[in-house]
Structures are given as C-alpha cells and as structure tokens.
Amino acid sequence: MTTQKPVKTSYDVVVVGGGPAGTTFAHLMKNKGHDVLLVERARHPRFSIGESLLPATMPIWQELGLHQKFEEAGFIRKYGAYFDFHDGDAPEYFHFPDAVLSKSPYSYEVPRAEFDKVLWDAALDAGVHALDKTAVRKFEVEGQRVTGVTVRTEDGEEKTIHARLVADCSGRASLLGRQLGIREKDEALDKVALFTHYRNATRSSGDDEGTIAIIGAPFGWMWLIPFAGDQVSVGAVVHNELFSQWKKDGWTREQMWDEIISTTPTISCRVQRAERSRDIETLANFSYRCKQLAGDGWVLIGDAGAFLDPVFSSGVHLAMSGAKLASRAAHRSLRKGRLPRTADFRGYQRRVRSALNVFSKFIYAWYDPNFRASFMRPPHHLKGVGHLKRHIIAVLAGDVFQAWRVLPPIGFLLLAARMRSRTATPELPAPGQSDAGASPA
Ligand SMILES: Cc1cc2nc3c(=O)[nH]c(=O)nc-3n(C[C@H](O)[C@H](O)[C@H](O)COP(=O)(O)OP(=O)(O)OC[C@H]3O[C@@H](n4cnc5c(N)ncnc54)[C@H](O)[C@@H]3O)c2cc1C
Fold first, then answer.
1. How many angstroms separate the first and last alpha carbons of the chain?
2. DSSP string of 189-229?
3. Residue 242, CA atoms < 13 Å, CB-side half-sphere
4. What's the number of CA atoms in the CB half-sphere (13 Å) around residue 62?
C-alpha cells in the first residue's frame, strides 16, 4: 500500500493516471527538479492490457534505471514478431536485430500488472508525490487555461488542487479530451477486442520463446504473447460488425471465443492442451484521436491523446516516448518561471502526430489484403532504398519518431500494395463523430 503524504493545494505539475505515460512523465519531471503530484484511480498492481513492448523504448528505460529492474523482475525478452495470415503463404519472422537504426535488439513481454507497478514504484522512489485510490473528477478551467483538478480521495473527500501544468495521462478514459470535446473516434477502425490468459500453452524455444505471434483471420486478427513462466496472453481484435452480429444472435463471450479459436489453427494448436487462467474480457471503441494534444496549462500524453489499433504493439512505446518529449517541452517552459502555453508544446504535438501517422499507415494497410504480400515478402533491394524488410522491422521495433528515416522506403512498400490492388489505400484517420469511449463491450 502507498503511504499517502498530506496533499498540498498547489504543485508545479499534476499528472492524472499512473500507467506508463503518467509514471514516466511524473518521474522525468521530478528528475528535472519540479514538484509533481501523480494521481491514480486504482492501486497497483492492477490488471491492464497491452503486454508486448517495443525495443525503441529502451533508451527511456535505461535513462530511468528501469531496464535493470525489468531484468530483475525476470520479464522475458522479445526478439521479434511472427506474422501469419493463414492465406496459404508461409508465415514470416521479423527479428529486431535485423532492423535498420536498431536501438536495441530486444524488448520484453510483460504482465502489465507487474510492469506498471515497477514504473509506479520507480516514480515514487524518485520523489514523486503519489495518491492512489484517488479519482480525478474534473479539470479546473479558467478562461482558456486549465489550472488544476478536483479529485475524490479513497475516503470520499473532494479536493481541488492547482498546478502550473496538468498532464492528462488517464489512458482510454481520455478525461480531458472528453471534457474539452476534442476526442474523435476513428470510424474506419471500429473493432472490439476479446482477450484472456492461458497456462501451459505450447511455446517456441530459444530466442523465439518471447516472440509475439500475430495471426490474420477473416474476423480480424489474433495475438499470442508469451510471458516468463507458464502463462501466455491470447487475444483477438474483431470487426465490430461481426461482433455485433454475434451479440444479436445471442452468443455468449465463451461461444465467441470458441468460434475465434476454432477458426485460427495456429493459435488453437498452441492452446488446445492449456488451461485458461482469466475470464474472457472485452473492450470496444478503442481507436480515436484528440484534435489537439496540448493547450494553455495542459498536455495529453499516451492513450489520453490518441489510441491506435494495437496490431503493431505501439501503445506503451507511444505513451513513454510521448512522456519523454512532453517532459522536455514542459521543463523548458516551467524553468523560465512561465505558465506553459499551447505554443510551448508545438514541437511535441508535431512529433507525436508524425509518429502516430507512421503507425497509422501500417495499420490501415494491415487491413488491406493487398498489403499482405508486400509486407510479408518485400522486394529485397530497391535502388537507393536498401533492404526493405530491415526498414519494416525498424517500424515494428518502434523507430517512428524520425519518420523521415523510415517513411521513404515504407512509401515504396505501400505503393507496391496500392499497385497490386489498383485501388487507393485509405487515407489517414478522418475526423469522425465524438465517441462514447473505450468501454467494455
Ligand atoms: C486490446 C488491446 C491490446 C493492446 N496491446 C498492446 C501491446 O501489445 N503493446 C502495447 O504497447 N500496447 C498495447 N495496447 C495499448 C496499451 O494498453 C496502451 O497504449 C498503454 O497502456 C497506454 O498507456 P497510458 O499510460 O497512456 O494509459 P493506461 O495504461 O491506460 O493508464 C491510464 C491510467 O489512468 C488511470 N485513470 C483513469 N481514469 C482516471 C481518473 N479519473 N483518475 C485517476 N486515474 C485515472 C487508470 O486507472 C490507469 O492506471 C493494447 C490495447 C488494447 C485495447
């Protein structure tokens, strides 16, 4: 249990949400000498989805001393990803050590309850003042400026706390985006996820023991993420139309799960002798973006600002890298004794949006059957581009914040897919209607 220090009425920075974005931002801002309050609704360890990590986050883990803690926690190393479209063509491995611009040859597969607790404890050890079991009820706004938050503590007390900067890291709750009415659902990626854990599933061996399996299927796609020990995470992302039909037909979650598993042989043969160790959970409405990622006195980081379909395991990387970029912008502003303004976060917004766009291009293409062949077996050498597969692996490893380095070759890949189909690949997410939010389906 966290020891709760008395809460002050004002801080330099209040951070809402103690997931990867919030703990990283709070930790970095504390290291830069600011007075930081971190507010979390739950108490760690708590379950969370999003268990497969990318190597490009490694420099942040090293900077915060987390890498050593992950090794001590015994998280399994992930050296790559295995893709199979079940379309008669051979499956394909993409190994991180083969990437151009490689920042690390591996990342980790993590039970998120354990991973998030390591991040939370590290932020507290760094001196961040943290309140858990405390929910932010609303953001205080004066004119155009966000000036603080009102929270409800574990014992039911309501308090208003002021801050020079409020960072919303509330994840898919996307609290400030909703309050400001700037959150827009991505209608083109209307999906539902179903997921669970198994014990004693069949695993790969050697360096591929920690490799994530991503399996394309007519209903959408599936993941299998092996953890250290005997557990694996298995999940499916299903087109909402189909999911709604199943619901209309009165199917239970168990029936849906049986259908998903039985039509995906790569997964069914791995789990047929395994026992399920969690109930099946569902999540809907999870692709959206906020029109603005920062304003006077506020910044949105991680899922609070945008969420992409998880097929390329991008969420935690975007959350922690976003926190790193936002901390630089926030520090530059706060150390001059100023109140942070929209303009201070222009570079942050630009870089996060460009990283989101790189992943988005891949995600849209993923749902286009014409992309598959180019993705799985890209041409080896294109003049002036080099080995295309090594560029694809760089994106899969999370090297998306210097888009100019990976986009030109990836552009060739998308063009090749487009030529195959002779129809246009969908453009980047178009603003849609405001969304009721990620919610249990
Ligand atoms: C089906 C699915 C599969 C995924 N798979 C992957 C994957 O393999 N790899 C990957 O990297 N990502 C994956 N993701 C994405 C990943 O879960 C998120 O991107 C990541 O957790 C974002 O971190 P965050 O800190 O922004 O938000 P979160 O991790 O959601 O943290 C937000 C925190 O805010 C707290 N909070 C919410 N409301 C309040 C409130 N009112 N007051 C105080 N605190 C509050 C919550 O309790 C939570 O602790 C997946 C997501 C889904 C839906």
1. 31
2. G-EEEEEEEEES-----GGGGG-EEEEEETTEEEEEEEPST
3. 17
4. 8
Task: Provide DSSP, 42-97.
Answer: S-SS---S--B--GGGHHHHHHTTHHHHHHHHTPEEE-EEEEE-SSSSPPEEEEGG
Q: Is the confidence at residue 258, as pLDDT, over 70?
A: yes
Count of alpha carbons within 13 angstroms of residue 201, beta-carbon side: 25
Q: What pLDDT sits at residue 381? A: 60
What six digits make up the tokens of 55? Answer: 């190597």
Q: 65-71 long-range CB contacts below 8 Å, 24 or more apart?
A: 65/122, 66/118, 66/119, 66/122, 69/118, 69/122, 70/108, 70/110, 70/115, 70/118
The reported pTM is 0.94
Tokens of 270: 């791995």
Q: Do the Cβ atoms of 182 and 175 come closer than 8 Å?
A: no
Q: Find the 47 Cα to ligand 1 centroid distance in Å.
A: 10
Q: Which two tokens stand for residue 261?
A: 């598993």
| Tokens at 105, concatenated | 């040859």
- Between CA 215 and CA 376 the distance in angstroms is 12
| Residue ranges around ligand 1 (CB below 6 Å) | 16-22, 39-42, 48-53, 135-136, 169-173, 175, 193, 195, 235, 283, 286, 302-304, 310, 313, 315-317, 319
The band of 1, judged by pLDDT with boundaries at 50, 70 and 90, is very low
CA of 74 to the centre of ligand 1 (A): 22
